[in-house]
Design goal:
The protein is mostly helical. Among the domains are: about 140 residues, Serine Threonine Protein Phosphatase 5, Tetratricopeptide repeat; about 160 residues, Alpha Horseshoe (Serine Threonine Protein Phosphatase 5, Tetratricopeptide repeat), CATH 1.25.40.10; about 110 residues, Serine Threonine Protein Phosphatase 5, Tetratricopeptide repeat (Alpha Horseshoe).
Length: about 900
């Protein structure tokens, strides 16, 4: 017997038990009678399996693909020149001189000249209070040309008084206007800004020179710079130091340590790592130098280790910097650079830094994602609450169930949320959840996306005509027609394919109507998938040698390798070369042990030996049954094994084995038939039979399909009744059906049953949600007893709002304070509870309590309007004396 197409590798099969000659017409009464008859006799009827080919290919919705690679945070080596640059050792300012014959024509009263002259005289005689008095008089002459010089003299006076901050302000005011001291005043302002670590304002004036100081602050801030002509500046010695610093020239004296460090930086960035290492080791081991300079040298020594791929040594130095300067930017930068260079480096660095830096965790997560380690990436993304990328990692790992859990943690329900939640519901077959999501007003805001999933929802239900009304894409419409078995419409739609996917689908349509030559016409065998289809096209024509040629080309393909090996086994089997067939079947099992192809190959190996059983055949069958317990092929092999037992005289073992076959494939087959049945009455009858007799997943799936059938026909009570007598999960289903169809009284009855029978957090969360519908405070009280702090906090918050709306401020206050105790301070609920509670306290004249409560706010979480409101409140309230006060309001 030739193997036309291996089970599951090409065709979808439905196994129909022998009690129905027409698989679409099953008499439920006869079925129950047969079952009763088999139970009476003790030994079930022989189970004949008729194989019906439904379609050559299973074409489903094309899955949405997350980004292939995520963009990692990028880091670069730090140039610490600005941090080791020194401020001037001393102020090289122009001395104050007595006023000679003035060339100015004073616009004010002549007293301004006298006031300024007195300032100069007092300054030169050391009478700084006199300088201040005369300056105050001079200030009256706003437009006096002596006022800028007066500011300069005051700046010099403040320096004498060691008030550098005030001196800086005076020099700034002098710098703004032309005078004999303008250049010196400006340079004094910039020099003091540098020394005091203040950001300067560069004054635009054509009457003074500023390039030196622009260069200084460019070095300080990591900008671009070059050497300066010092002849134009008052700070000539400092200017010479700046030029030496830029060039890395080491001059003994006050600035020599910073010059030495700068020379090390220049050598490092010139890739002269050996010279740089000597310089930085000299600095680091010079214990007379301040550690603020030495640990910067340690940073560059770590970078040099990194250049030499000595990752562990670089990490050691990063940890040393971290321990001595917790939160240091240098430690973070080193951790990140090591993470970029070393495999798993970011993860190690994150651990060594006690997960202090979320950006390191992000880097490690992105690296894991980009390397295909999606489960590890997901864990790291969750650690930093990067839910979006965690969802991407789940989808990449095909873990849609976990994707749903993560999406439900997201605070914002935006387009990303609806798209991936719908996608995840689709691939986990949560059709009721998908339907409810599609009915939500939030999802409907995204019209194009909503229509896309509305179409696929009806496609999944098998309502292909309804699905077509939502699709405008000819490719999606072709997929629907393909699943309807309307291959001619597929060919009509894709007559001139424009994309690779369209050509693949068109080729499958031609193969499905047994036109393999036309399938080859629309494809070029340039990809693994196209070569696989080429091989199948020849296989269908019984041209096994050409089929073998194409299958052999893709045995190493990640996606099609298992299928190609399996088809090679089938081709050799049909050529009569059983040994080669078994060889390729065994290759499937060895190379792809957990694949469905391995299961089928194992089955084929056993089947090829059934006619001539060996001593090991019984062991092989038992191993297959044990490994593939829930597969229909195991049921077939149980029957074969029972025959072996009968031949061996082991009748009791044969009986026990046969009795396990009856309940399995029969009802699974009936469920599949119900899914294909278009007549709603016949579909209903089949599904009721499965629900009455099947167990586990088969029964649950039948319930879901029957509920969908009833809802589609408007029989809401019938749909809910399916679940209303079941366990907690079923009752929740019933509640959701009533709620979604606005049958509130019946929904409340179900909810009351849930509350009385189940005290877990799932029901408490449901009660919390139900309050929005029923406005019954007892629901919130029930929810407030949850073990989940987030549910309890939300319940307390809603109770507070409820009592406040009822005018009971005391009760409202108590609930809001409970929220504050339970909730992290970055959450909106925490903030709102404090604001509302403080307002109540103020109305009760408990002003200090209100002040203490407001102190607990995270000010960074407030909007500008809220921040203004809180600050205005706190200005009117007394200071909080009891910082631990929280049990307020009685």
């Amino acid at each position: 017997m030739l193997k036309r197409i291996g089970l599951f590798s090409l065709f979808i099969f439905f196994i129909v038990a022998s009690f129905a000659t027409d698989p679409t017409k099953i008499n439920i009464k006869e079925l129950k009678q047969e079952q009763a008859s088999s139970n009476k006799t003790g030994i079930p009827h022989q189970l004949n399996l008729n194989v019906q080919v439904i379609s050559q290919f299973n074409i489903d919705k094309p899955p949405l693909e997350p980004p292939a690679k995520l963009r990692a945070p990028s880091f670069k080596e730090l140039d610490l020149s600005g941090e080791v640059l020194q401020a001037p050792a001393y102020m090289e300012l122009t001395p104050v001189q007595k006023l000679k014959n003035s060339s100015f024509i004073s616009c004010g009263e002549p007293d301004d000249v006298a006031d300024y002259s007195s300032m100069v005289s007092d300054y030169l005689s050391g009478d700084y209070k006199g300088v201040e008095r005369n300056f105050q008089r001079l200030l009256k002459y706003t437009y006096s040309p002596y006022l800028p010089m007066g500011y300069y003299v005051m700046g010099m006076t403040r320096l004498k008084e060691n008030n550098e901050l005030s001196a800086r302000d005076m020099f700034y005011n002098s710098c703004k206007y032309t005078s004999m001291y303008q250049q010196s005043a400006c340079e004094g302002y910039y020099a003091l800004s540098l020394k005091l670590n203040q950001k300067p304002v560069f004054i635009n004036s054509p009457t003074y020179h500023k390039k030196l100081w622009e260069t200084v602050f460019a070095i300080k801030n990591g900008g671009r710079y070059s050497t300066v002509d010092c002849s134009e500046f008052v700070f000539k010695n400092y200017c010479s130091y700046i030029n030496d610093f830029i060039q890395g020239i080491i001059i003994p004296g006050y600035y020599q340590n910073s010059l030495f460090f700068r020379s090390g930086i220049i050598n490092y960035f010139s890739k002269k790592y050996d010279i740089a290492k000597q310089i930085f080791e000299t600095i680091y081991t010079n214990y007379s130098l301040p550690y603020s300079l030495r640990y910067k040298a340690l940073y560059y020594l770590a970078l040099i280790d990194l250049k030499n791929k000595k990752y562990e040594k670089a990490l050691e130095k990063a940890v040393m910097i971290e321990n001595l300067y917790p939160g240091s930017d240098l430690a973070l930068n080193l951790y990140a650079l090591i993470g970029e260079e070393s495999p798993k480096g970011a993860a190690v660095a994150s651990i060594l830094s006690n997960n202090k830096y979320s950006i390191l965790t992000k880097l490690a997560a992105v690296q894991a994602y980009n390397n295909g380690d999606y489960n590890y990436a997901k864990l790291l993304f969750l650690k930093i609450k990067d839910y979006k990328d965690a969802v991407y990692a789940c989808v990449k790992a095909k873990d849609y169930k976990d994707a749903i859990n993560i999406l439900q943690m997201m605070p914002n329900h935006d387009e990303f949320y609806y798209k991936w939640l719908a996608e995840s519901y689709y691939y986990t077959k949560h059709l009721i959840a998908l339907r409810n999501l599609l009915r939500s007003e939030g999802f409907k805001r995204y019209t194009e996306l909503h229509n896309y999933y509305e179409g696929w929802y009806y496609f999944k239900l098998g309502d292909y005509q309804k699905a077509l009304t939502y699709f405008t894409s000819r490719y999606y419409r072709a997929i629907v027609y393909f699943n309807m078995g309307d291959y001619k419409d597929v060919i009509r739609l894709l007559e001139n394919p424009s994309t690779y996917d369209e050509r693949i689908l068109l080729a499958k349509a031609y193969l499905s109507i047994d036109e393999p030559a036309k399938a080859r016409e629309v494809l070029k065998p340039t990809t693994a998938e196209a070569k696989y289809l080429y091989g199948l096209s020849y296989f269908i024509q019984d041209d096994y040698q050409d089929a073998i040629r194409y299958f052999k080309e893709i045995v190493s393909s990640e996606r099609f390798g298992a299928r190609a090996l399996l088809k090679l086994g089938d081709a050799y089997y049909n050529l009569g070369d059983i040994n080669k067939a078994i060889y390729y079947y065994q290759k499937v099992v060895e190379n792809y042990p957990n694949s469905k192809e391995a299961m089928e190959a194992s089955y084929d190996i056993i089947s090829s030996r059934i006619k001539n059983p060996s001593k090991n055949l019984e062991v092989a069958i038992k191993q297959f049954i044990e490994r593939y317990k829930n597969n229909p092929l195991s049921e077939d092999l149980k029957y074969q094994l029972a025959n072996i037992y009968i031949k061996q005289g082991k009748k009791e073992e044969a009986y026990n084995l046969l009795s396990t076959i009856v309940g399995g494939p029969r009802y699974r087959a009936m469920l599949k038939m119900a899914m294909l049945e278009l007549d709603p009455h016949k579909k209903e009858e089949l599904l009721i039979n499965v629900i009455d007799n099947a167990q586990g997943e088969t029964k649950e799936k039948a319930k879901e399909l029957l509920a969908d059938l009833y809802l589609k026909e408007g029989h809401i009570n019938k749909a809910a009744a399916i679940y209303s007598t079941g366990d907690e999960k079923d009752l929740i289903h019933a509640y959701e059906i009533y709620i979604s169809n606005h049958m509130l009284n019946k929904a409340k009855d179900i909810l009351n049953r849930l509350i009385s029978q189940y005290q877990d957090d799932k029901v408490r969360a449901l009660a919390l949600e139900a309050f929005n519908t029923f406005k019954d405070p007892s629901l919130l009280k029930f929810a407030s007893n949850s073990q989940d702090p987030s549910i309890r906090a939300k319940a307390f918050y809603e109770l507070g709002n409820y009592y406040l709306s009822q005018g009971d401020k005391n009760k409202a206050l108590k609930e809001y304070v409970s929220v504050v105790i339970l909730t992290p301070n970055e959450q909106d609920m925490y903030k709102d509870s404090i604001l509302k509670a403080s307002k109540i306290l103020i109305s009760m004249h408990a002003y200090e309590d209100a002040s203490c409560l407001l102190d607990k706010l995270n000010m960074n979480s407030l909007s500008n309007q809220e921040l203004y409101y809180v600050k205005s409140l706190k200005r009117r309230l007394p200071a909080c004396k009891n910082k631990n006060l929280l049990n307020i309001g009685g």
